[in-house]
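Hypothesis: this fold can be encoded by more than one sequence.
Test: take the structure tokens below, design a sequence, compare later.
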């Protein structure tokens, strides 16, 4: 089974950028659709972006569209989330997830990382 591990979180000022990485070990990476989700304190887990098996199809939440870009490198079994124009509302723990098909619903993903904290100061 694939095991995702996130990295790249940190503290950044409003308007700044961060790049998150998700490294997946085990399993056959190209069999999985991948997603980024986030959870802010006191809020539910929410969809950020998803990417299909080949990386040719992507989708974004309205709140991240135009600011975030999701990509994957199947040769290295990795996924990335480039986050630009960050806002304090983007502060959350960000999770990488792998599933059998692309979905915006967290419950459709079988494998999850431990998360990485992103904090955006105003």
């Amino acid at each position: 089974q694939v095991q995702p591990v996130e990295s790249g979180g940190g503290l950044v000022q409003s308007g700044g950028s961060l790049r998150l990485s998700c490294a997946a070990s085990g399993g056959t990476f190209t069999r999985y659709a991948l997603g980024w989700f986030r959870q802010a304190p006191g809020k539910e887990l929410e969809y950020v972006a998803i990417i299909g098996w080949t990386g040719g199809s992507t989708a974004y939440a309205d709140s991240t569209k135009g600011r975030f870009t999701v990509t994957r490198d199947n040769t290295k079994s990795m996924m990335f989330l480039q986050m630009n124009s960050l806002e304090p509302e983007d502060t959350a723990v960000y999770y990488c997830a792998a599933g059998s098909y692309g979905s915006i619903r967290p419950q459709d993903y079988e494998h999850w990382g431990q998360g990485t904290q992103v904090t955006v100061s105003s």
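The mean pLDDT is 95. Residues 18 and 35 are 17 Å apart (CA to CA).
Hypothesis status: open.
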